[in-house]
Amino acid sequence: MARKLWAKRGLAALATGAMAVSLAACGGGGAGGGAGGGAGDGEEGGLVGVAMPTETYERWVADGEAVKTGLEEAGYEVDMQFAGDDIPTQQQQIDSMINKGAEALIIASIDGTTLGSQLEAAGAAGIPVISYDRLIRDSENVDFYVTFDNFEVGVQQGTSLLTGLGILDENGEPAADAPEGPFNIELFAGSPDDNNAGFFFDGAMSVLQPYLDDGTLEVPSKQVEFGKVATQRWEQETAQERMENLLTSTYSKGDTTVDGVLAPADPLSRGIITALENVGYGEGDLEMPIVTGQDAEAASAKLIEDGKQYSTIFKDTRLLAEQAVTATTAYLEGNEPEANDTETYDNGVKVVPSYLLDTVIITKDNIQSELIDSGYLTAEEVASGQTD
Ligand code: BGC
Which CATH superfamily is domain 11-148+316-357 in? Predict the structure, then answer.
């Protein structure tokens, strides 16, 4: 995978500083510190636990790989685990990381509310916890949050839906020659137990709602509440099934067609596109609706190239991983990581200091410049729809 290259480039400088600090920490007898072996053996900086939710989404595999490589290059030993989207498995994995003497934890939770006892144990042992991409909720023992601007991701999804429909121009401004509509759209949201899902949906609705209010957009199924349109555990099959049901219940008479679908993540977009293709969208006069996405997965980049998916949102997981390593290093050096947002992410107990990264709308026009030229995906991965 092209992403591997990043670790060498992006973290080389960081690694030098972190190494010196980790060694110093070992010398000082820091809790659970490693044996202080020779530079470059990846074990002198102590153990960091990295808990990732699932391997079924390409992005978490990329995140995991980038975080692990980054930490190792910075001189840490890494225990990285994927939990197969199973909450008890993730709880056990984190328990085991703590038992093995992890000095810091980086956690991308499955359900942000279910790690209470693990976080208490971490807090009691003075282990810093970095919430990765998804906010861990209802606990005091979350020290820092690295993520993207999740509300803005939703704004970008809604904006690209409007651009695809011709309502906005390529700059996100009302198009001079905008068709009148009304356009039929359907809405999908992510998993209700993922704090991000609400941010994405609210962001998208903040740009779509005025057009729903003035009648430019309509939702023929009338399913517009988050609770109605959410997709438990972000499962592709669940989204496909819901789209199939919508097509049967609302669009089967042939006088109403789907013009657009707000889809919050690429695998869900693909499930939705499959359901649409199965009833003939994309053939003859029945145009494929404008379908959004998120994560810039290779399979969806290919669908965008092929004109089946309209857009996705590029969240550069290499940069997120780098922030996670930076924050971990700061804590293990006895410092506080630098936050750029101290207001947005209230986890129910406290506002967690956060570092938010920017994201980019991807359409056919900028796959080359944003994804391929930056080395995030190779041209071969986009052409085949598969990462190696
Ligand atoms: C992430 C998205 C991802 C989704 C499903 C969210 O928390 O922010 O990037 O598509 O989970 O895995």
Answer: Response regulator (3.40.50.2300)
Distance 135 CA to ligand 1 centre (A): 11
CA of 7 to the centre of ligand 1 (A): 22
pLDDT in tens, 232-264: 999 999 999 999 999 999 999 878 999 999 999
Q: Ligand 1 centroid to 172 CA: how many Å?
A: 24
- What kind and span of H or E run contains 320? helix 317-332
State the chain's mean pLDDT as an integer: 90
Which amino acid residue places its CA nearest to atom 3 of ligand 1? 265
CA distance 345 to 127: 21
pLDDT band at 44, cuts 50/70/90? low
Residue spans per domain, the chain: 11-148+316-357, 150-294
CA 48, CA 128: separation in Å to the nearest integer?
Answer: 10
pLDDT in tens, 341-372: 999 999 999 999 999 999 999 999 999 999 99
Amino acid at 3: R
pTM score, two decimals? 0.89
Which atom of ligand 1 is found nearest the CA of 57?
A: 12
Strands 129-132 and 144-148: parallel
Ligand 1 residue neighbourhood (C-beta within 6 Å): 57, 59, 133-134, 190, 194, 196, 234, 265, 294-295, 315
**In CATH terms, is domain 150-294 a member of 3.90.1150.10?**
no
Domains 11-148+316-357 and 150-294 share a fold: yes
Q: How far apart are CA 92 and CA 362, in angstroms?
A: 37
